[in-house]
Write a structure and sequence with these properties.
The chain is an all-alpha fold. The protein contains four helices and no strands. It folds into two domains: 12-94; 97-148, no CATH class. Helices cover 38% and strands 0% of the residues. Residues 16-43 form a coiled coil.
Length: 148
Amino acid sequence: MPKIRTSRTKPPPEGFEEIESILDEYTRKMRDAESESTEGKRKVEALWPIMRISHTRSRYIYDLYYKREAISRELYDWLLKEGYADANLIAKWKRQGYEKLCCVRCIQSRDMNNVGSSCICRVPKSQMKAGQLVECTHCGCRGCASSD
């Protein structure tokens, strides 16, 4: 979640005004997801909407800078510093094979059931059994292998 802006922080770089309304919309969606009732959900399912919104906001900023080249490096660095995007996730998206990665936790082998493996959502759909439901327990992803 972005830090609270105070009068002591540097003002945002030029170009922020153009994307501010979209980032404010993501902030509103994040607040709604945080205040949503978790009744009737499994314990792990409560965080899935928050993870999806965070991923979408990070992907938006990544696309603005790397794909469309619509924002400056200064604005991009400022957005990462202020917490508008996940810098670790964006760093992984730049590597081959991780272009569609849903969250950094899915590639950490220490959190998995089998030692040295990755999350089930990282397995290509071509290697899964037909009709098998794939759903990550960490973030709710239904498959983020780049080879799909």
